[in-house]
C-alpha cells in the first residue's frame, strides 16, 4: 500500500539539473530517510514534497490526491504536511506554549489542553510553557519545533536535517525520542540527512540520491549489505572492495574462497565486504591455522574502544604474499602488535557487484 508516490520528478535551476526522474513510494505510517552527499538534490526533493517549490516535470501524489503535476501544484498550506527545519525556526518573541500553538486558531475549544498534551507527547516539562526559545537547550528547542509541527495533526511529517546542530550524544537521544513520538502518533515521516548512521537507524526505508538521481531505495539492511554500486556502498559505511573470480556459489579473491551469490555468472567481478565481517585470530610462529588465509599486521591506529588494524594478506600457509591490504576494526582489548601474524576469517557472505572489477580497495574508517 502506498501513501506518498513520486513519479518522474525533475527540477532544474537554470541549465543545472537538481533532480532527474525521481520516483519511489512511501508506505503509510512508515519512516523514510533520503540521504546523499551535499548537492545531491535531497533538500530540493523535500521542498517539492512540502509544496515550497514546484517540480518542472513529474507527479507527486499523497493519499490519492495529486499535489503536483509538473509546475501545477497544491499550495503548501493546503497539503496537511508538517515541516521541521534544520534550525527549528522558532519565533524568538513567543513563549514555548505560543510557539507550539501557533498553527491553532486562537478561539479553538481546548487549545490550551492541546498544547499541554503536545508538550507531554514530546516530553517537555509543562513548567517550560512560558519560557522563550533562547532559554531552552538545543534538544528542547527541537522538541518544541516537533510539537508545533504535530499540532495540526499532519498526514505527513518532513524533517530537514533536524539533529545536525546537536552534539553527538544529544543527536542520538533526540533521534530516538522523535522516532518514538512519530511512531506513537502514527504519522508517515520523511527525514532528509547526510548522516548515514542516522538514516539507517531512524528509517525503515532509505532512498539514496547522487547527482540528482535516485541510485537505490530499499530497507536499511538491504542497502547496507547489498548496495547497487561501489559509490553507494562507500557512502553508507566503511567498505572493503576486492577483485575476484566468480565460481559456483563462491568467489576466489585475495582472502581465499568465500561464499557468495554469484547469480550463475562467471569471470571477473568486484566484491564488497563490510569491515565488521573480518575477524583476526592471533597466531604463534609456525602455528597451523584453519582460517582461509593469514596476514601480517603492518600498522595499528589506537582509537579508544575500537581501533584500526592494517593487515597485509596472504592466501594461506606456504603461499606467496599478495598485494591485498585491509584496514580492520578491532576491539582495543588485546590489540595485535605490528609484525604479528594473524589468521583472517570472514563472517557471512560477500556481495558481488554487477560492474567489472577495478582491483581497487578502500580503507575502512
What does the secondary structure layout of this molecule look like, with pairings?
Elements: E1 4-13, E2 16-26, E3 31-35, H1 42-50, E4 57-62, E5 65-69, E6 72-73, E7 81-84, H2 96-100, H3 111-121, H4 138-150, E8 156-160, H5 168-185, E9 188-193, H6 196-202, E10 205-210, E11 213-218, H7 220-225, H8 230-235, E12 240-246, E13 250-253, E14 256-259, E15 267-273, E16 278-283, E17 293-301, E18 306-314, E19 321-331, E20 341-346, E21 351-352
Parallel strand pairs: 3-9, 3-10, 7-8, 8-9
Antiparallel strand pairs: 1-2, 1-4, 4-5, 5-6, 10-11, 12-13, 12-15, 13-14, 15-21, 16-20, 17-18, 17-20, 18-19
Helix pairs in contact: 3-4, 4-5
Summarize the structure.
This protein is α+β, with helices and mostly antiparallel strands.
Key traits:
36% strand, 8 helices, transport, Rossmann fold, 21 strands, 365 residues, five-stranded antiparallel beta sheet
Structural class: alpha+beta
Shape: globular
* CATH topology type of the largest domain: Rossmann fold
Number of helices: 8
Radius of gyration: 25 Å
**What percent of residues adopt helix (DSSP H or I)?**
10-25%
CATH class of the largest domain: Alpha Beta
Strand order of the largest sheet: 7-8-9-3-10-11
What gap, in angstroms, lies between the N and C termini?
A: 39 Å
Q: SSE order, as H and E?
A: EEEHEEEEHHHEHEHEEHHEEEEEEEEEE
Number of strands: 21
Mean pLDDT: 86
CATH superfamily of the largest domain: P-loop containing nucleotide triphosphate hydrolases
* Biggest β-sheet description: 6 strands, mixed
Domain ABC transporter: 4-236
Keywords: ATP-binding, Cell inner membrane, Cell membrane, Ion transport, Iron, Iron transport, Membrane, Nucleotide-binding, Translocase, Transport
GO molecular function: ABC-type ferric iron transporter activity; ATP binding; ATP hydrolysis activity
Organism: Skermanella stibiiresistens SB22
Amino acid at each position: 500500500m502506498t501513501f506518498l508516490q513520486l513519479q518522474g520528478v525533475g527540477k532544474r535551476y537554470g541549465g543545472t539539473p537538481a533532480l532527474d526522474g525521481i520516483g519511489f513510494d512511501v508506505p503509510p505510517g512508515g519512516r523514510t530517510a533520503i540521504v546523499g552527499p551535499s548537492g545531491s538534490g535531497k533538500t530540493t526533493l523535500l521542498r517539492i514534497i512540502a509544496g515550497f517549490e514546484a517540480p518542472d516535470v513529474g507527479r507527486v501524489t499523497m493519499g490519492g490526491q495529486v499535489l503536483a503535476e509538473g509546475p501545477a501544484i497544491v499550495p503548501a498550506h493546503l497539503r496537511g504536511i508538517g515541516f521541521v527545519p534544520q534550525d527549528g525556526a522558532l519565533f524568538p518573541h513567543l513563549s514555548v506554549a505560543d510557539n507550539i500553538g501557533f498553527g491553532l486558531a486562537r478561539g479553538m475549544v481546548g487549545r490550551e489542553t492541546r498544547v499541554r498534551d503536545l508538550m507531554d507527547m514530546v516530553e517537555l516539562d509543562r513548567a517550560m510553557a512560558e519560557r522563550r526559545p533562547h532559554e531552552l537547550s538545543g534538544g528542547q528547542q527541537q522538541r518544541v519545533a516537533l510539537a508545533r509541527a504535530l499540532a495540526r495533526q499532519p498526514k505527513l511529517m518532513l524533517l530537514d536535517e533536524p539533529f545536525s546542530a546537536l552534539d553527538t550524544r544529544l543527536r542520538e537521544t533526540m533521534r530516538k525520542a522523535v522516532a518514538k513520538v512519530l511512531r506513537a502518533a502514527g504519522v508517515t515521516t520523511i527525514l532528509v540527512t547526510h548522516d548515514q548512521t542516522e538514516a539507517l537507524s531512524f528509517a525503515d526505508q532509505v532512498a539514496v540520491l547522487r547527482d540528482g538521481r535516485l541510485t537505490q531505495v530499499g530497507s536499511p539492511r538491504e542497502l547496507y549489505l547489498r548496495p547497487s554500486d561501489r559509490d553507494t556502498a562507500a557512502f553508507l559505511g566503511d567498505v572493503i572492495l576486492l577483485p575476484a573470480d566468480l565460481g559456483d556459489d563462491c568467489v576466489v579473491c585475495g582472502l581465499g574462497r568465500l561464499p557468495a551469490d554469484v547469480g550463475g555468472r562467471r569471470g571477473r567481478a568486484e566484491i564488497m565486504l563490510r569491515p565488521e565481517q573480518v575477524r583476526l585470530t592471533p597466531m604463534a610462529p609456525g602455528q597451523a591455522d584453519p582460517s582461509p588465509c593469514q596476514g601480517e599486521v603492518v600498522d595499528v591506529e589506537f582509537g579508544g574502544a575500537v581501533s584500526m588494524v592494517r593487515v597485509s594478506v596472504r592466501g594461506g600457509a606456504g603461499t606467496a604474499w599478495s598485494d591485498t591490504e585491509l584496514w580492520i576494526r578491532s576491539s582495543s582489548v588485546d590489540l595485535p602488535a605490528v609484525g604479528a601474524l594473524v589468521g583472517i576469517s570472514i563472517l557471512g557472505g560477500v556481495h558481488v557487484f554487477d560492474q567489472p572489477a577495478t582491483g581497487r580497495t578502500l580503507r575502512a574508517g
